[in-house]
Amino acid sequence: MSEFLIAFWQTYNTLLFTVFVHGMLALSIYITLACGQLSLGNAAFMGIGAYTAALLTMKMQVPFALALAAGGLLPAAVALAIGIPTLRLSGVYLAMATLGFGEVVRVVFLNLAITGGSLGLNGVPLKTEFWHLLFILGGLIYFFVKLKNSRFGRALEAINEDEIAAAVLGIRTTFFKVGAFVVGAFIAGIAGGLNAHFTFFVSPREYGFEFAVDILTFAILGGTGTFWGPLLGSTILTLLPELLRFLGPYRLALNGLILLLVVLYLPNGIVSFKRKGGPS
Amino acid sequence: MLKLENIVKDFGGLRVLDRLSLEVPEGTIFGLIGPNGAGKTTVFNIVSGLSRPSAGRIILDGAEITNLPPAAIAARGLARTFQNIRIFKDMSLLENVLVGMHRLFSYSPVAMFFDLSLKRREERRLREKALAILSLVNLADKARRKAESLSYGEQRKLELARALATAPRLLLIDEPAAGMNPAETEELMNEILQINRQGYTICLIEHDMKFVMGLCGQVAVLNFGELIATGTPEEVKQNALVIEAYLGRDEELDLNRDL
What we know:
The structure holds 2 protein chains of 2 kinds. Chain A has helices at 2-33, 42-60, 64-87, 93-111, 130-148, 151-161, 163-168, 173-199, 209-222, 228-243, 251-265; strands at 121-122, 201-202. By secondary structure, chain A is an all-alpha fold.
């Protein structure tokens, strides 16, 4: 039994790590969706976090915890700079701005000497341990549970449902939208730092537009009514290609088919059971 | 309580409000009436900060609020409802009212995260208060229901309760009786009277004249963005300009005069 477990761990620990990191990214986009804003910049924020944390541990031997914190704070600061002008307006401006921003970030990583150009950074030290992921994802889940029935969670939900009504009730809508976006960027940056320190490797290709869409797909597949939806979506979409491995070349086709079926028959995502009337 | 000074509002080349000045005295129920398109809702939008006046000043409780953002105006004690109901349909009635109480909460994110007793006490206290506000409009027994499950008239009352929850000094109510049957309207009149007696100053837009005449101590009449009359409901009813605005001019008389 224990031999089996060891073999299982050796084969699948990377996959398990990835499930946790993708779970964090799913939560990072959920918090902006929770107030009706679409961010397509979370892959780029993850990239900034990954490069920042990796450079700090590789070149400056900064302790891992500090490097991770910096990997979260830098994207959060960048999000603040993008969010303040774009989120004063209501509508799709954040989606447009973050779409462009993602490309800018990719090109910058590709051309800077310090980020290793198109080769990226190799030989990032192995620092991420499984308990780090458990602890951080667990902390995030706890945070979202507490957020739900708090004054902050209600404000986000109100903005999501009707921004104008929320504003005339005294909710500072721009403040909350920017806050959610900044927290999302922070979470994505931490996920990036954790990811870099178990894949040993950071490259500009990983954090492009395709991955931004993947993150959005986590949320759409799982459903955005509650934070459990994006978490479930990211887990399924990360595990699915592995579970379908026996199909060989048809694996990606079936992957796509499942997504299509969910969108067609469960338009509110997998977690689309009716939400209860109110908190207890 | 509320004072408008020479408010002008232009939409492109169209002047919707023309040098409008009026004053809502503290403690009263004030009626803003006029034919469709007279600019009544525009007045509410400008006062609540959703729209900016092209010129003029707005003074709430002695302090100028012209051009402040909606949330800042709400913080100074102004609340409003909308003509086309804007409740949060996916939330329960209780949650709707709790959102209205947003500014009364003061616990920090840290207190939220660690579920401190400070936070729990505040939530409990304000939840009880929210229930009390819901019972003011006879909706307390439905507190846990989803807002979208309410009838049209009940949704209007929920919106009123949510506005009251912000603890306003002045309450702007946009067509509260629209879409209500006579019995519901009667009940609503009593509820608004109760609210006023608790010390809230109220300014309302309404087309139902029985409603306006029965509730309002003072009325202002708008027509094409201009103030054409103010006074008690009885005075205004006799005013020739008001009669003309509502019923139109007598063409024959005009013709005679022209000839």
